[in-house]
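#lab-general

N.A. 3:47 PM
ok so I finally got the sequence cleaned up, no stray characters, all 133 residues accounted for. can someone with queue access submit it? mine expired

B.Y. 3:52 PM
send it over

N.A. 3:53 PM
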Amino acid sequence: MSYVRQMLDSYSPALAVDAGLLAAAIDAASDCAQACAADTDADLSEPNLAEMVTCIRLCLDCTDICIATAAVLSRPAGRDLSAARLLVGACAAICQSCGDECERHAHMPHCRVCAEACRRCDRACRDLLDAWH
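B.Y. 4:20 PM
back already:
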């Protein structure tokens, strides 16, 4: 069981959504942010840097949005649910875009790993959004 899930299970106020779905989204966003940050660094080491510009930019955006999403979702008390939904939707969208771009470069192991992390985060965010509706 992840630390995120342990914290959510110890939370005394009732959560607005299933703790398992919430924990999965937080864990996936944190993992995706780490994968995108590492992929950006690896992309900068590639010999044909010009080919990697779009991937680098999307990874940077994905890192920032995933970090923000994980942070906001980790504070469930008194959250503005409509703002959280928009943030989770933005996280799913950037993860889809970044995952698509990283898949274009999947012959490089670092891009393949990043694409997998993006896909996992996209799914976790969409599952959470489905549960909120």
